[in-house]
Amino acid sequence: MGEELAGFTIGVTADRRRDELAALLQRRGARVVLAPALRIVPLADDTELREATRTCLDRPPDVLMANTGIGMRGWLEAAEGWGLAEPLRSVLGGAYVVARGPKARGAIRAAGLYDQWSPESESCDEVVDHLRRRGVAGQVIAMQLHGERQPECTRALEDAGATVIEIPVYRWAPPTDPAPLHRLVDLVAGRLVDAVTFTSAPAAEALLRAAGDRTETVLDALRGDVLAICVGPVTAEPLVRRGVPVSAPSRARLGALVRTIVDELPRRTVTIKAAGHLLTLRGHAAVMDGELRPLAPAPMAVLRALAQTPGRVLSRTALLRTLPRGADEHAVEMAVARLRAGLKAPRVVQTVVKRGYRLRVD
């Protein structure tokens, strides 16, 4: 496995598969910040789920909307515990089954059921459009929910004449420890991460909620320096709605998500020639003549500022604005000294007496 992502820092907001995603990114050299935005909580009280299951047995659905793999498996496992698994499989076996995505399809088939249709976009809207065209007047639709109710989808189907049984298998809750999420908000706002990954739309909403009065600052970062990478278009929707350009793989898979990151992040790097060296700027490192040189945030900030206009002199005051608040001109000198030491090429950053510093391009 290569080091395609060496020098980049990536935030991971997933909960359930965060370790798997982190391992895939770290294997490619990335530094990973784990910050679950939400956690999936099984229903503490199964009363609602049991009642919905009983309703399905009493009024066998004509259509089953299977939204997620984990939700379908959870529903069937709960029914097994109540001794209702076989009757439930039997009534679902007579339904027209729509699997919203590949994971839901896998769970359906593992249960011995057969799915008849899936939307290309994996969106609820496309499912609703398909069912309305097919005709649902007078039909019963069992809608397996994925974390939150979908009132718009339910209402659209009911307006078309269907009876909708909502199946609440699990719900979203805030993370047990919110500190990592708030730290990620700090890093995004300070543009100290290169990308943030999202595997669910509620996680994207949760990150913005955690930002509080800094929401616009976070959105500005995601519209510019920080790449937002979503597992699919449904996940991306809350960000797209707020004007954030989003990258997403064509298939909603973690492996495809990582390949998208490997393709996208290196393209966003800046490469310049300085003092006879080829210098590429990555998130928290520079690549000097093909060798990675990790840098602390302050020297990296100075290097970014100087690299915007190679050869142009920037004053200490100008460079001070790139450093954290509270820094003074001495901090600029320290950052430059650490930058030279980190690059192991002291001639790259030139001191121009009484004026400031520049990247030597001659």
Automatic annotation (TrEMBL):
Domain named OmpR/PhoB-type is located at 269-361
Entry keywords, A to Z: DNA-binding, Lyase
Tell me yes or no: is Lyase among this UniProt entry's keywords.
Answer: yes
GO terms for biological process, alphabetical = phosphorelay signal transduction system; regulation of DNA-templated transcription; uroporphyrinogen III biosynthetic process
Name the record gives this protein: Uroporphyrinogen-III synthase
Give the DNA-binding residues: 269-361
Q: Which CDD domains match?
A: HemD, trans_reg_C
The GO molecular function terms of this record are:
DNA binding; uroporphyrinogen-III synthase activity
EC id = 4.2.1.75
